[in-house]
Design goal:
Layout: E1 5-9, E2 17-18, E3 30-34, E4 37-46, H1 51-61, E5 77-86, E6 91-93, H2 96-100, H3 108-127
Parallel strand pairs: 1-2, 4-5
Antiparallel strand pairs: 1-3, 3-4, 5-6
Length: about 130
């Protein structure tokens, strides 16, 4: 991020700025604030058969996001985009929201790293499915 943009995340206790500073009652995953715009990125890991329904669910969940802005971004335009990643590593997202705000898009290395991580974690969940937490 350059000095003209700010990153807000939904990771309580982290070193990053928190989405709770810019939204009340809702907690989108990631927000990039740049000039008078805020790009909201909602991330979802789902099964391949649920890519479309997951996207629609998140778009509906955040359709009234303007009603929850705090004073920090009260006069900012909001742009919502979703990013769905399947348990087999298929990625669905729209780069145009990033490009319209002159924010660099995900490059192939980042996309591949995210896909590998999701596949590995999905596999770990699968192989440990019969182990009870003690």
């Amino acid at each position: 991020m350059n000095n003209k943009s700010a990153l807000f995340v939904d990771l309580p206790g982290s070193k990053y700025k928190q989405v709770t500073d810019i939204f009340s009652s809702v907690r989108p995953d990631l927000v990039i604030v740049k000039e008078k715009s805020a790009l909201i990125v909602e991330l979802t890991i789902c099964h391949e058969t649920n890519l479309r329904s997951s996207k629609l669910y998140k778009e509906n969940k955040y359709k009234d996001l303007n009603n929850f802005k705090t004073g920090i971004i009260a006069d900012h335009d909001l742009v919502l985009t979703t990013c769905e990643l399947s348990v087999l590593g298929f990625l669905q997202f729209d780069n145009s929201a990033y490009q319209n705000l002159s924010i660099p898009t995900f490059d192939d290395d980042i996309i591949n790293s995210i896909a590998r991580t999701v596949i590995q974690l999905s596999f770990d969940i699968y192989i440990h499915r019969d182990i009870e937490n003690v």
